[in-house]
Design a protein that fits this description.
alpha+beta; Immunoglobulin-like; 9 helices; 40% helix; globular
């Protein structure tokens, strides 16, 4: 019998290992359900004290913190550079619980750490990746990461844009800055929009980022964040629907049209109606456009609730 080439055997073993490690998603109505989950450098009084977005040089321990709803057991399955290192189980009770797990790392540091949060029967609740990042010794790069961790994507964008202007084009640092802008800042701004109900452009942003992701650990981390952003979008859609808060949807439909990208807000009422009216119809036809006034900052839009007669003022800020 002819022997299989060693390279093919190695590939098959790796393929079997990956398939064995893969976990099926947990059912949507299963317990415990998972709320927020994030990497942090420390947990105090059951709460994460910060949010880690990259694996900093010299890190010796990290935590992952999660909130759960419903009684049961979750398991934190830790990987370093793709190698499974430890499973940590935690029993949680009914209601909302805070739970966390810690990983201590020796030298040399891994390029990335991945955690699978598993529910009943080892189903997958969430997967998160924390990867090393380039040029984190540079103060402006470090500042931008801190701004992103504090949910200040706009601040991070300004920091990186100013840094980019001072750099030689096509230098390694300039490429790293541009990559942060195209991937990490874009995802930060998408999350900001999702959290405030500005949903119209979020999915387009996510797909644009996805097109340029490769297989680097930092790209895998980005994919995990995209999953979280889509979860946030789903939650916001449900919230907006249940509360009847369609004003945000209508307003963002106005702000995030092609006219915004072309730099010309609809200045006249007829143009504004052409943009706003379809948004109001889409949002349940609860509000009517009452008035539109151009301003130095863009516009002032007045909407009237058809059921109560109350007016709502909407401006760009």
């Amino acid at each position: 019998m002819q022997q299989m080439p060693r390279r093919l055997i190695t590939f098959l073993i790796a393929l079997l290992t990956v398939n064995a490690a893969a976990a099926r998603d947990c059912p949507a109505d299963g317990a415990p359900a998972l709320g927020a989950a994030q990497f942090t450098s420390r947990v105090q009084a059951q709460k994460p004290q910060d949010r880690l977005l990259y694996l900093a040089p010299g890190t010796r321990e990290i935590f992952i913190h999660a909130t759960t709803l419903g009684a049961g057991k979750i398991t934190y399955r830790w990987y370093q550079d793709g190698k499974r290192v430890i499973d940590v189980g935690a029993n949680v009770g009914a209601g909302q619980w805070h739970t966390w797990s810690r990983l201590r790392m020796g030298a040399p540091m891994p390029e990335y750490v991945r955690v699978q949060l598993l529910g009943a029967n080892a189903c997958l609740l969430r997967e998160l990746t924390l990867a090393s990042a380039a040029f984190t010794e540079h103060p402006e790069i470090r500042k931008a990461w801190q701004q992103l961790a504090a949910d200040d994507a706009t601040g991070a964008k300004i920091t990186l844009k100013l840094l980019l202007e001072s750099l030689t084009p096509s230098s390694p640092l300039a490429k790293a800055v541009q990559r942060m802008l195209d991937r990490d800042v874009a995802l930060g701004q998408a999350l900001e929009r999702a959290r405030t109900g500005e949903l119209f452009l979020v999915e387009g942003t996510l797909k644009e980022v996805e097109k340029h992701l490769g297989n680097r650990p930092a790209d895998r981390s980005a994919r995990d964040r995209i999953v979280d952003i889509r979860r946030e979008m789903t939650a916001q859609k449900i919230r907006l629907g249940h509360e009847g808060n369609f004003v945000a949807l209508a307003t963002r439909h106005l702000l995030e049209t092609e006219k915004l990208f072309r730099g010309d807000y609809p200045l006249w009422r007829a143009e504004a109606e052409h943009v706003v009216t379809p948004a109001l119809t889409y949002a349940g036809n609860r509000f009517a456009m009452l008035d539109w006034q151009p301003t130095l900052r863009g516009y002032k839009l007045l909407l009237q609730d058809k059921r109560t007669g109350k007016t709502i003022e909407v401006t760009p800020d």
